[in-house]
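quick one before i forget lol
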Amino acid sequence: MAARPPQDDPAEPDAITFGIAALDGRLAEADLTYPTDAATVVETLGDPEIPCDPSGQTVALSTALDEAGPTRFEDENRLLDALHPVFEERRQSASTGLLARLRALF
C-alpha cells in the first residue's frame, strides 16, 4: 500500500510505501533465490524494519515472519501472501487510535 506524503518538501518521494509494497521493493533489490526459508530471507535482507502504515509504525521482518506462520516459501508470491495478513492486521490496529475513532463518529 502507499499513501501520498505531505507536500511541504519537494524533495520528498511521490508516495510513502508500507506493508507488502515496502517489502516488495526490498525483495526486488535482494539476491534471494526460491524456494527459501524464513531464516534465509532475514539473513539476506538483514532483518529490516518494514513500515506498516503511513504514520511510520514499523515491524521487524523477523517478527512479521514469526507471526505469519509458514517458514518455507516456494516463490516470492507465497512469501508475500503469507506476510500480507500480518501487515494488514498491524495497519488496522494502528488506525484504531483516538483520531481514527473520532473520524468514525463523523
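fyi The mean pLDDT is 85.
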